[in-house]
Write a structure and sequence with these properties.
The protein is built from 5 helices and no strands. The chain is elongated.
Length: about 130
């Protein structure tokens, strides 16, 4: 999953703008959620600095702080956990579906490549 997709999902699900330069608690907490997901669940391989830039220029220290804050919030704040758990479950299900689709696509590609290799071997045998 890409950082852009995660950002869209969080913003749509919670109806917030993560790029907004604000210190309102609910926006900041959902930004922490985004940092956590972007760092732990993306296929982009982004650095902390790059993750911060996806929201309009937050630096690596802000992202690292947000990831740590997310862990603390999730562990100790039951209301936050209740808000986040349904969304996390939804994301994980989507990632499982994407993984299954990617696996099927890879298997198809491998089969096609094997077929091409067999065809090329036959052509080489005809030449020699």
């Amino acid at each position: 999953m890409t950082t852009q997709k995660i950002k869209e999902l969080v913003e749509d699900y919670y109806n917030v703008n993560l790029s907004e330069k604000t210190r309102r608690r609910h926006v900041v907490h959902f930004r922490f959620l985004y940092y956590h997901l972007a760092y732990n669940h993306t296929s982009d391989g982004y650095s902390l600095d790059a993750i911060g830039k996806t929201l309009g220029g937050f630096d690596h220290a802000t992202v690292l702080y947000g990831i740590k804050q997310y862990k603390d919030l999730y562990e100790f704040d039951k209301r936050f956990r209740k808000m986040v758990d349904p969304f996390i479950n939804e994301i994980e299900q989507e990632m499982e579906v994407n993984t299954a689709e990617n696996t099927r696509n890879l298997r198809r590609q491998v089969r096609r490549m094997k077929d091409k290799i067999i065809q090329m071997e036959k052509q080489l045998e005809e030449i020699f």
